[in-house]
Amino acid sequence: MYRVLYRKYRPRVFADVIGQPQVTTTLKNELQSDRIAHAYLFTGSRGTGKTTCSKILAKAVNCLSPVNGDPCGECAICRGIEDGSVMDVVEIDAASNNGVDDIRMLREEADFTPANAKYRVYIIDEVHMLSIGAFNALLKTLEEPPPHVLFILATTEVHKLPATILSRCQRFDFHRIPPEDIADRLTYVCEQEGCTIDRDAALLIAGIADGAMRDSLSLLDQVMGQGEHITQEQVRRTAGLADKSRLIALAEGILSHDTAGAIDIVDALHRDAKDMARLCEELIEHFRSMMLIRTMKKTEGVLVLSEEELRQTTEQAQKLSLSQIIEVIDCLQTAYDRMLHGVNRRIEIEMTLVKLCREERHTDTTQLENRVAALEKVLTQLRQNPSLLAPPPAASSGRGYTAPTVRPDKEKMELLRKNAVPLAQWPEIIEEMKRYSKAIGMGFEGSTAYTSGNYVLVDSQNDLCFEMLRKQANRDRMREIIRRLTGQEYKLGRYSYPDETKPDDPLSQFVADLQAAGVPVEDSKKTSDGTS
Question: Rounded to whole angstroms, how far apart are CA atoms 368 and 348?
Fold first, then answer.
């Protein structure tokens, strides 16, 4: 009977295990020094060698003639474990044997000494599927097993294991196998099978398998049915992937806002029975490559692309900013998530491409960036006037800053008015002042107020309200009301002063003319708000 490739080329010794030196080296050293633990935990993604290493370890601890920590593969025990005739090595699928009774039966069997081998080895695959009761039943045996028992637990979801189980095992983490290592192994397998494979095709298989050697060999087994020479196009056709040229053309349609061209490509792929969710996933991967090209100096070992594909992808990456690439990936990811929830996949990918091809989307982004740049320029200008940006210091009394209302100098006043913004809460502030003092509140009727920096500037034709604010208690109450309603501390000031609203005052002009003529004039006393 034909044996599939992943079974036929399963490693027989630790040296044959690809891409897991952190595991195989440690296990060989322990076997050579006879420091064998009673329980091992192998964790990692699928197809990375957990079950393979479990079987090699089971043979190595029982081998009659071990060779530098590896099983010889020739003795009766090694051959018996390989063909399943040695009953002392038991493989248990925890997905279907996950109850308390199954573990109790295992505990009873563990008490018996091995019939043929040195150790009775229990390999429990997908151990995270055990129930809580089964884990509890296993704890005591796992912690203090009989001297002739060895447990090997394997799982792809180690986070589901209780901490009590983890603490009783020697843990080994299996990594995803690098694409180059998988491609080398596939080339070797093809040579043994009497066929050839292009390097690009081997790397594509490795990329599809996502670091899993078993998946790579399964896909290779399927592609080998098409002929003795394996090309990238054959791999894409077998795996149901879109042609790379079509994928690049689809991305180019997004870059050039060619909606009709992008929809035509989707229609052609749909007629070829390509899965639209897989197409969306490939587009995400393509724009991920662009993102990494824009952010990394060297992408070797991160991107699995041929030289021509890398050149084309780099050219496309230069046409978009990094923020636009991330925006496209985010949009495609949202579409992919929706596809998995049962919506019409073709409509979803078409709708997403129409959205991505709109010129307005890129224009809006550009406009937003321009607005942000303008705001940054304004902030830079404001930072040149720290007095407008610095918050008022808090007073020791806890009531906020209580400096007297002082008229700013003319230059500063001009800057304050230039950056003034209407205070929306001013009507509410007046109502609150009426509750405190009806006379003061009525004095501010018809007035408006503006905020500028850390000032509230009041514009009113009624000077009586400003006279009332000369009293410290009244100023403190208004500041407190403003702080409560706006959430910020402000100083108080006038939006305009009498000498600014009446520049052509005849008396002032007459006095100025006398002084210009050299006639001595006694200065009149002025109040603090600028009125005579």
Answer: 27
Strand pairing report for 120-125 and 149-155: parallel
- Is the Cβ–Cβ distance between 43 and 155 less than 8 Å? yes
pLDDT in tens, 440-472: 778 788 888 888 888 888 888 777 777 777 888
d(CA 530, CA 318): 62
Q: What's the Rg (C-alpha) of the chain?
A: 40
How far is it, in rounded angstroms, from Cα 60 to Cα 73?
9
Residue 347 and residue 511: Cα distance in Å, rounded? 83
**Chain segment 271-309, per-residue pLDDT in tens:** 888 889 888 998 999 999 999 998 888 877 677 777 788
CA distances from 196 to 187, 199, 234 (A): 7, 10, 13
Does the pLDDT value for residue 406 go beyond 50?
no
pLDDT higher than 50, residue 491: yes
CA distance 439 to 469: 12
How far is 116 from 88, CA to CA, in rounded Å? 7
Given pLDDT bands bounded at 50, 70 and 90, which one contains residue 213? very high
Q: How far apart are CA 285 and CA 332, in angstroms?
A: 10
Q: Are 454 and 388 in contact (CB under 8 A)?
A: yes
Reported as a pLDDT band with limits 50, 70 and 90, residue 378 is: low
The tokens describing 502, both together, are 């009446």
Cα dist from 410 to 184, 456, 492, 495, whole Å: 79, 17, 16, 12
**Cα(first)–Cα(last) distance of the chain, in Å?**
114
Measure the CA–CA gap between 391 and 486, rounded to whole angstroms. Answer: 14
At residue 398, the pLDDT reads 40
The pLDDT assigned to 311 comes to: 87
Cα 442 from Cα 366, distance rounded (Å): 49
- Given its phi and psi angles, is residue 73 left (phi above 0), alpha (psi -120 to 50 degrees) or beta? left
Whether 394 and 387 have beta carbons less than 8 Å apart is answered as no
Does the model's pTM come out above 0.70? Answer: no
Helix, strand, or coil (residue 468): helix
Pair 78, 59: CB distance under 8 Å: yes
Kindly provide the residue ranges of all beta strands, DSSP E only, lying in 145-270, ordered along the sequence. Answer: 149-155, 170-174, 196-197, 229-230
Which two tokens mark 383? 């930072």
Closest to 244 in 3D by CA, of 255, 253, 256, 232: 232
Task: Please state, in angstroms and as integers, the Cα–Cα distance from residue 397 to each residue in 121, 400, 406, 456, following that order.
Answer: 77, 7, 21, 22
What is the per-residue pLDDT across 215-245, written as a single tens digit (0 to 9) for each?
999 999 999 988 889 998 888 888 877 777 8
| Token output for 168 | 């009783």
| Helix, coil or strand: residue 493 | strand
